[in-house]
Amino acid sequence: MSNSIRNIVIAGLGGQGVLKASDIVAEVAFAAGLDVKKSEIHGMSQRGGSVSSDVRFGSKVFSPMVPDGEADFLVVLDPTQIDVNRAALKPTGVLIEPSILAGHKLKSDKSINVALLGALSRHLDFPESAWITAITGHLAPRLHDMNVAAFQTGRNA
Amino acid sequence: MNHPTAPSRRILSGDEAVALAAFEAQLTLGTGYPGTPSTEILESLHSLGGRAQWSPNEKVALEVGIGVAFGGGRALVTMKHVGLNVAADPLFTVAYTGVRGALVIVSADDPGMASSQNEQDNRRYAVAAGIPMLEPADSQEAYDFTLLAIEISERWSIPVLLRITTRVCHSKTIVETPAYPVPPAPAAGYLRDVPARVMIPAYARPAHHKLRTKLAQIAEWNEREGPLAVVSGSSTLGVITSGVSFQYVREALPQASVLKLGLTYPLPLERMKSFAAAHERTLVIEEGDPYLADAARAAGIAVEAGAEAFRFGELNVARVRRMEAGDLTPEPKPVPGKPPELCHGCPHRTVFTALRDLGCIVSGDIGCYSLGVLPPFLAMDTLVCMGASIGVGLGLRHTLPIDEARRVVSVIGDSTFVHSGITGLVEMVYNPPPTGHLLLILDNGTTAMTGLQEHPGTGRTLDHASTGKFVFENVIRAMGIPDVHVVDPTRDPAAFTELVKTSLDSGRLSVIIARRNCLLAAGAIKQYEKCPEGNTHEQ
Questions:
Q1: Which long-range contacts (CB under 8 A, 24 or more apart) does B43-48 make?
Q2: Which of B170, B239, B444 to mutate to test the interface with A (most CBs of A within 10 A)?
Q3: Which of B36, B114, B172 is closest, CB to CB, to A37?
Q4: Which residue of A has its CA nearest to B346?
Q5: Are residues B220 and B237 in the same domain?
Q6: Residue B42 lies in a domain
Q7: pLDDT band at B6 (very low <50, low <70, confident <90, very high)
Q8: What is the pLDDT of residue A48?
Q9: How many other CB atoms sit within 10 Å of the CB of residue B404?
Q10: Spans of chain A, pLDDT less than 50
């Protein structure tokens, strides 16, 4: 059953936009007509501490959290958080981390979340336009250009 | 106006789904006190255009909700699990009085304590107070059960507990809203019914009988047409479950038959009995206390419960597999992440540096400043519940040897002081310790920990519009505290430290209000001050 479900864990530190990134992924899957669940913890952990969010989609999803060792993709926004979250990834899973962007310049470090979604997007069967729609739908207009550019940087990295 | 609504499909958190249902049910008023994981319900209700307001605490919120429902309106009262402790006094008696409109009380429990001081299981409150309880398993059910709660409340004139948990509140799942309109609320208006509303003993005795009669009727309805679901599967393994645990069961044990309960008080014991009888083995999978398992066993239903080890923390797919297998080998420990910390530039940092350097015994409280307990400050010695800093600090002063008693300081935030610190301060004036006492109110102009909500001390309502302001120093001076200081601790940290030291040495009763806006809220507060009519259309 879990074979038909895609499991994505996004992790980082409070303030890096982990939850925004997982909202965007969930929106893309939702727009494709799939069943989607997304889970995270709010509150005290967000005061600069470790933050992670799970997104699952497929024909039918039960648990909102990705079971350990079942993540197809682990997207980590801060290198210090890789070891903390590695147990989420399945043996054949793909780690997407900031070093992927080496040699590419982002206008702002604040859009690293969206840049890594760009890298993630290459592994998933959703049209680029669906990503752009979800990104602009979740961000204030003044941030659109910077984040669309960051997404494309990640997608082409 | 009652237009048919178009069916729609969206992805919502459980909190947003509760708000959407309440809004579509033309709720009269939503009220509550911020608390993770419940906070977003009232914020979403406001964003949708509903009437939502923060109360000073959960007890007042529930009392306001009771008044709305007595007047024939529909009320939603939201809080986190520990908030229901504060609201427990009116809760137990509104079960007796019943209501005329609808009263839905949301208890957002936090198994695993992502952001709480305990993991109490508030299903116990439904039983103790005698009020029906619904437990949604995802956002769709959060929506559906909010509507059902209103319906049950109006049908039986009884308050209803909507018990949700962190993973329902903060997970986003798909919600399809129905094409038919929610029946409109009856017109509000006062109907005098003294024996039903005035709980003097002579009226309360028959009211208790009436409550038990209603609960018996609801139990019967729950057996016949309650919101339960049966998933057919193996005849060898049956699972009885409720709430989010249902999701883990379906994933971990796809072969099992499942009886998923929706209204978990009063329980459909006959349905549970026949389900258990139809399976060789019936397992109860529930997060927290063995509430369903105990009730089943007390009714003579043969069920197995998860081992005691699974009572601690949240459940998940892996833990449910272990519960079924009776696997008690040590569970893998998560790699510790980076702990939370006070923001760099946070005014609380100055305060806790001073308290640490002065070697104070700090009676602490609930909020961002609870992080003063962690390095580099290590400057908090007790934390029990909202408001406890003052009473606990006084108790320590009454007990400790003089040289220790003189170092005791109570520390509380602005929102927490309004919530339940005021009566502690009355105690300080009324029963002063021989060594005096010092209360520090850390006034950062917002309810920071839960996500920057307004409170009476900010002088702004939930939508950030200007309103009557509770001015701490005016009230505290009027209470007769001899020394009241209002300072920005960051302006001159050395002078602040000296002020704390002088106050401790004085042997008198002192209050220092350390006032500087939260770093995260400061920009928004400036905007609100420029725009006093508030923000009526968020996002």
A1: B43/B19, B43/B453, B43/B462, B43/B538, B44/B15, B44/B16, B44/B18, B44/B19, B44/B20, B45/B19, B45/B76, B46/B462, B46/B463, B46/B538, B47/B19, B47/B537, B47/B538, B47/B539, B48/B19, B48/B20, B48/B23
A2: B170
A3: B172
A4: A47
A5: no
A6: yes
A7: low
A8: 77
A9: 13
A10: 1-2
Domains of chain A: 2-156 (3.40.920.10)
Chain A residues in contact with B248 by the CB 8 A cut-off are 62-63
Question: Is the same domain home to B416 and B516?
Answer: yes
B401 with B491, same domain: the answer is yes
pLDDT tens-digit readout, B299-327: 999 999 999 999 999 999 999 999 999 99
Contacts of B3 (CB under 8 A, 6+ apart): B181
Q: Chain B closest CA to A149's CA: distance in Å? A: 24
Model pTM? 0.96
Q: How many domains does chain B have?
A: 3
Residue B331 belongs to a domain: no
B170 contact residues in A (CB cutoff 8 A) = 39-42
What ipTM goes with this model?
0.95
pLDDT digits (tens, 9 = 90+) for B93-134: 999 999 999 999 999 999 999 899 999 999 999 999 999 999
pLDDT tens figures, B383-401: 999 999 999 999 999 999 9
CATH number of the domain that residue B236 is part of: 3.40.50.920
Chain A nearest-CA distance from B446, in A, is 15
Residue B525 lies in a domain: yes
Last residue of a domain, one of B185, B208, B225: B225
pLDDT at B314: 97
B2 within a domain of the structure (yes/no): no
Task: Flag if A44 and B166 touch (Cβ within 8 Å).
Answer: no
Backbone dihedral angles phi then psi of residue B301, each to the nearest 5 degrees: -95, 130
| Mutate: best of A2, A34, A47, A81, partner B, most B CBs <10 A | A47
Q: Find which of B168, B173, B285, B370 to mutate to test the A interface (most A CBs within 10 Å of its CB).
A: B173
Per-residue pLDDT, A43: 61
Helix residue spans in B114-200 (DSSP H): 123-129, 139-156, 166-169, 194-197
- CATH code of the domain covering residue B208: 3.40.50.970
Same-domain status, B153 and B74: yes
Interval B189-213: pLDDT, tens = 899 999 999 999 999 999 999 999 9
**From the list A13, A38, A84, which residue is nearest B172 (CB)?**
A38
Residue span of the structural domain in which B308 resides? 229-325
Q: How many contacts, defined by CB atoms under 8 Å, are there between A and B?
A: 114
